[in-house]
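#struct-queue
[09:14] JT: dropping the first one here, sequence first, then the structure tokens:
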Amino acid sequence: MSDKPAIILASGGLDSTTCIAIAKHERFAPLYSMSFDYGQRHRHELSAAERISQHFGVREHRVITIDLRQFGHSALTDDIAVPKDRDERSMSANVPITYVPARNTIFLSFCLAWAEVLGASDIFIGVNALDYSGYPDCRPEYVAAYQRMANLATKGGVEGTLPVRIQTPLLHLTKRQIVELGHSLGVDYALTLSCYDPSDDGRACGHCDSCQLRRRGFAEAGVADPTRYVGVD
């Protein structure tokens, strides 16, 4: 067994699932995954994250419950409509209303605490700076700043015994390249869910920003899209 344990921030979506496949391919082991039940409208992603973790033989998958609806101000945690059918320019013009305030900072902090307990230096997160829909906490500057902070804030980081590395293998890839990479690693994307506004039975809407970026990625990669969309059998 490898002595390179790693934690993957697992949303159940295309990007985080590709990160799990990359970590496994690069022989990080054992693998751990963490998801969050934070009051999001698209809670079907939690079921996806669970089945994906099982599929990849993750040693332990944890679901952390926190209620970000207390703060709201996001279409994912508040009574605000999810934007639909926007073009690419509109998606990246401003920080979108689907941005959840400080979400990645909160999530990474939980991962950081667990990593220190597990003796894991590496935390994988599927952030993407090219097809990132304008989220401030998906930028290279953010990731670099968080890693610096993490190494100032943990016992292992300060003592130099457990340096923190925030692994972002998808950071500079397009959705097409991510799909191509995952496809080459044998990822079954039928297990995943990326939609911000799925139906009650877990079908993707096909029209939110996340769905549109995902659909475009599959189309440009020439890979069949296995997503279950509303209105499509």
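[09:21] JT: and here's the second one, same format:
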Amino acid sequence: MPSRKSSSKPPAKPTSKSLLAWYYKHRRRLPWRALPGKKADPYAVWLSEIMLQQTTVAAVKPYFEDFLRRWPTVEKLSNAKIETVMSAWAGLGYYARARNLHKCAGVVAKDYGGQFPGTEEELRKLPGIGPYTAAAIAVIAFGKSAVVVDGNVERVMARVFAVTEPLPKSKAKLTELAADLTPKTRAGDYAQGVMDLGATVCTPKSPRCPRCPWAANCAGLAANIAETLPRKMPKTARPVRTGAAFWMVRADGCVLLRRREARGLLGGMTEIPGTEWVQSNGSAARAARSNAQKAPVNARFRTLNGTVSHTFTHFHLELTVHSANLTSAQAKKLDGPEAIWVPVDEIGSAGLPSVMRKVAMHAIKQSDS
């Protein structure tokens, strides 16, 4: 880790001016970011900010570009079918964001004439827009002097001011420090500059301190503790849930999918039929045998080797997969308004969320072996 000799004199407070000068030279090129001298598109800013919630820039880029190609305006997005939007979102995770995205587009198109409101107060009234997102849209798209604090900003503030109190207890303090540095003018460039600094220089591991415009002002660096900040409370172990998925293939090579209920985890997404996901309390083998008996149709199922593992925010999931080739009579019993039959070789474009993609790959790999 870069270090410097400690001094009894604390570093001088950093300035927005030095950061803005750095940002002018080193800003990231992002598909939703306006070019220098150009006005930001509120629709693009809103779309990117919703997608970026708890998701990396690298993961968001292809989704953002696909959404903008399909629905270049908020009106076009509002007119899209929710099933189509959910399918396009598949794999990005946190699917309530997609439902709220579509709902918000409808409100903006209908109640605001297709124009996003420009204040934090009005933006917070829209579906799916919380304090952080409202501040980000207000400052980036409309040039308001708002305080934007994401994980990158928290890390920069914790290091520059040597805040050793762990997160989340230190959130209020870090927000206060960020607000004190936010300028009245060029606030949008400043906000994006701090985020870029955290993403490219003041990184979680091996920060590039010699390249930092605030290195001389960094109390964490002066105390040789920068890389240890921000500190965090110990994480609690995630509970484990178990369940089963049933891979059922018709004689014509189509596999059965269905759409989940609109509410709840993965709400509105397409899935491979399965059991409820319940808290694990006992033998995994016994749970697998019990789940195998809950198949939606009486057919000759075989339990595939291994399990499909997937970690959500609040729990870890282990799924056993049971596979069957159905007769015409068995397949007919499964027909209904929720049934979606998709050719196995087209499963990749069926709009499955990540956990269901894992199930499909697990089943296809063993059927080919």
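[09:30] RK: nice, looked through the second one.
[09:31] RK: The CA atoms of residues 78 and 102 lie 6 Å apart.
[09:31] JT: good to know. The domain at 16-228 is CATH 1.10.340.30 (Endonuclease III; domain 1).
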